[in-house]
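Attaching the record inline, Q. Sequence:
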Amino acid sequence: MKSASLDTTEAMVSAHFSAPRVKLDQINASIAGSVYFTAGAACAALDLPTNPSLDILTICVITMTNGFTLIGKSAPASPANFDAELGKRLAYDDAVRQIWPLMGYALR
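Structure, as predicted:
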């Protein structure tokens, strides 16, 4: 998924630093796929109790090329602000931002 927020971060960092670092292109290349769902939909599919608050909690599961998985999440402060596409984008960004330190550790 393309993310303006992540692209902006990458552009700012690349303009200031030239030492070895984890680049967004490297992260994107290490992502095998991603899936999105709301917690409410997951509970309904599993026949678990649900409530309206779970319908606005968006979850993104990213699978890396090595099989490792990360979970990103997003939820608005007010249910009136819920937007499914924005929730997916923010959940994806949350998951990708977790990859950076993992790959940074490997680089170091």
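The chain has a mean pLDDT of 92. The chain is about 45% helix and 20% strand.

More tomorrow.
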